[in-house]
Write a structure and sequence with these properties.
The protein has 13 helices and 16 strands. The protein has an eight-stranded mixed β-sheet, with helices on both faces. An eight-stranded mixed β-sheet has the order 3-2-9-5-6-7-8-4. The chain starts with a helix and ends in a 5-residue tail after the last helix.
Length: 460
Amino acid sequence: MKITTTLLLLSTVISMAQSQSSDEIKLKEIYTIALTNSKCYTWLDYMSNKIGHRLSGSVGAQKAVDYTKSQMETLGFDRVYLQEVMVPKWVRGQKEIAYIVDNKKKITVPICALGGSIATPKEGITAEVIEVQSLKELSDLGTEKIKGKIVFFNRPMDNSLLETFNAYSKAGDQRRSGAREASKYGAVATIVRSLTHSLDDFPHTGNQSYGDIPKSQYIPTAAISTNGAELLSKLLKANSKIKFYLKQSCQTMDDVLSYNVIGEIKGSEFPDRIMVVGGHLDSWDLADGSHDDGAGCVQSMEVVNIFKNLGYKPKNTLRVVLFMNEENGGRGGEKYQELSKKNNENHIFALESDSGGFTPRGFSFETDDANFNKVQDYKKIFEPYLIHTFAKGHSGSDIEDLTSDKILKVGLRPDSQRYFDYHHAGNDKFNAVNKRELELGAATITALVYLIDQYGIITK
């Protein structure tokens, strides 16, 4: 009996060692192909430099749909198709103008309208400025001190937080809700310090919401560059009566038809089990959206290119989904989930790459304890590639609402220290993306997709 038990244990250990050795070999092949024979950088070059920005509802967004669909049709998918989705159409209009009026001296500062903002009157707005650090401070000041003024939200991202996405999240309420809240106290406009650690002259846009307040209470809102914010704050301390001039001509039009772009390979063993990998195809309109999120889209497409070069046929059905309208509505992710639920689809895995094309450091997981513990077993074979972070955390906005009986949701986690230098700003261009870092990210995604496809998830 002892001998039998010992032999069984030894057989199990040998089998596990052989499996690990096989996985290590496969990961090496994946990284080698990604670094020597990938297409993702070329795809991103075209999207950034030939198409440009891809704000939902724009000509650029439609060109990106057409281009990525055509490229995916060359990769050997069983099916490539478009999924209809109605998206908002917001247009920035003419370049915004702003300056500080200090003792009849005009000092120009860089601004940009926030997504969804209304325009100023044609002649612009000139008013005194009141600086606040939070929505609570706004409330404490009340109507008496705010009415008729431009509210200046100047709370910076917290430099003490190592996780830059945490710093972004904690500072984001003033951008998302500042105009809505300030209008309740009679403010005529708001300006918001750009959400970046950098001190520079790039205003960073982003979406904001008026919530359920009446349209008659909507006020214009814009982001100001961090250098501009520092200057304005300094001048206000010296003279609280200085004024600020703001002019912007943005407008919201009727919703328009757009598409999620989807490529599918039917699983060779488990066609009813679906694995999704994707990014969002739309971008803000100030630059090319190369990091946010052109990088995630081309990395997701690269998964299939690598599998094609490997001659690997997935056991489970694999879908590459390029979602539309993450930036100012989330309609693409909502539509995908709606149709998935309607069709009773069984998703076991979903991975989103939406944190830039920087050097990959690991993954964040949204799942139960059993599956989180299972993926920890893969950590060791990723360590030679300096992939060391396997932590619970947010996966991605487009897959956030995706549900199934059991699902493992994952976000690629690149090094984030430089991400907010470019996020939603005019410098998010192709030359900001390093080819090798982009390819390493694609390899890292592919490696995890391969392992999940091989070993599945725990469903009980």
